[in-house]
């Protein structure tokens, strides 16, 4: 079965997200752990989480993906901003244990003018501070498009981070199709080549989730503007190859396309019908 979901609003709570996912034909979903601008997180309602876990079990949900707020910057030049990232993400991970054995994805950060080396060092420091040996959550670094001074624009940059982290078995990668295409990885005409490169640099066993987004911009544009599946420069056929690829087809896929729920439902339906058994 194709494991697929989309980004959902968490404003109505956990069980509501599970029900919404079912309504649009999804068997997983992504949500922000708090307001994407990074404000205070709502307190966990254990009954609500319990209801979601029950629903997910009954409906054979795949792994659920939580997304850190965009505003955290683990490698800011400003110490208090870095400290905020550490506190926010540590708190998120603590709350994620109510929802055990799922994923928590974050953007490595923007080094601004400090250079990639100090940026990488700060991200490693954050991870070495927040990861716990007994946590059940996998923390995923997202592949970035390389706009501005984003860290994570290449497989090598992500590997550098992983290599510096003590509890690196708690770490993995979430590959965003729009981001890697914008970063200059040709998943349209050379998907096998890109996956081989990922495998030799990071190792495909580290790939835990895929963000499925088409791109509004052409190859290697370093822009990061998501488009609906089939309406951008990546194109529908490439997505059908991606979800069916023998090295990817078992992973959970998450849509972050510019859609309302009905648009997500259509994309999920199209992708499910294109998934080969
Ligand atoms: Fe993201
Ligand atoms: Fe993404
Ligand atoms: Zn993006």
CATH class: Alpha Beta
Helix % is 25-40%
Distance between the termini: 8 Å
Structural category: alpha/beta
Query: Uncertain runs with pLDDT below 50, 5 residues or more?
Result: none
Q: How many domains make up the coordinates?
A: 1
Question: What composes the largest sheet?
Answer: 8 strands, parallel
- Radius of gyration over C-alpha positions, nearest whole angstrom: 18 Å
Tally of DSSP helical segments: 9
Order of helices and strands: EHEHEHEHEHEHHEEEHEH
Coarse shape: globular
Structure ligands: fe (iii) ion, zinc ion
- CATH homolog superfamily: Divalent-metal-dependent TIM barrel enzymes
Enter the CATH topology name.
Answer: TIM Barrel
Known CATH architecture = Alpha-Beta Barrel
Counting DSSP E segments of at least 2 residues, the number of strands comes to: 10
For the biggest β-sheet, the strand order reads 1-10-7-6-5-4-3-2
Sum this structure up briefly.
The chain is 39% helix and 13% strand. The protein is α/β, with parallel strands linked by helices.
Key words describing this protein structure:
alpha/beta; TIM Barrel; 8-stranded parallel beta sheet; two-stranded antiparallel sheet; 39% helix; binds fe (iii) ion
Give a topology summary.
Blueprint lengths: L3 E3 L7 H10 L6 E3 L13 H13 L6 E3 L11 H18 L6 E4 L9 H15 L7 E5 L12 H10 L6 E6 H7 L7 H11 L5 E6 L1 E2 L10 E2 L8 H9 L8 E3 L5 H14 L3
Parallel strand pairs: 1-10, 2-3, 3-4, 4-5, 5-6, 6-7, 7-10
Antiparallel strand pairs: 8-9
Helix pairs in contact: 1-2, 3-4, 4-5
Bound molecules: fe (iii) ion (2 copies) and zinc ion.
The site of one fe (iii) ion (FE) has 4 residues, from loops.
């Amino acid at each position: 079965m194709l494991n697929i979901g989309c980004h959902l609003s968490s404003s109505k709570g956990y069980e509501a997200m599970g029900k919404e996912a079912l309504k649009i034909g999804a068997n997983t979903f992504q949500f922000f752990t708090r307001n994407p601008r990074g404000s205070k997180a709502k307190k966990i309602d254990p009954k609500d989480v319990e209801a979601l876990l029950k629903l997910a079990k009954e409906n054979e949900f795949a792994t659920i993906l939580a997304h850190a707020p965009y505003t955290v910057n683990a490698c800011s030049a400003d110490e208090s901003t870095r400290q905020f990232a550490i506190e926010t993400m540590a708190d998120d991970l603590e709350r994620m244990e109510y929802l055990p054995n799922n994923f928590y994805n974050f953007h490595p950060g923007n080094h601004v003018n400090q250079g990639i080396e100090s940026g990488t060092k700060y991200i490693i420091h954050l991870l070495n501070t927040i990861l716990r040996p007994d946590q059940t959550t996998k923390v995923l670094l997202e592949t970035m498009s390389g706009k501005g001074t984003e860290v994570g624009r290449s497989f090598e940059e992500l590997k550098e981070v992983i290599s510096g982290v003590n509890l690196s078995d708690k770490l993995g990668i979430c590959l965003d199709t729009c981001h890697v295409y914008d970063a200059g990885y040709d998943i349209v005409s050379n998907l096998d080549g890109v996956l081989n490169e990922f495998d030799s640099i990071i190792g495909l066993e580290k790939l835990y989730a895929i963000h499925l987004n088409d791109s509004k911009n052409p190859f290697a544009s370093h822009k990061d503007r998501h488009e609906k599946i089939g309406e951008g420069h990546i194109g529908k056929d490439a997505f059908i190859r991606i979800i069916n690829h023998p090295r990817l087809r078992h992973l959970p896929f998450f849509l972050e396309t510019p859609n309302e729920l009905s648009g997500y439902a259509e994309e999920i339906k199209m992708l499910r019908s294109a998934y080969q058994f």
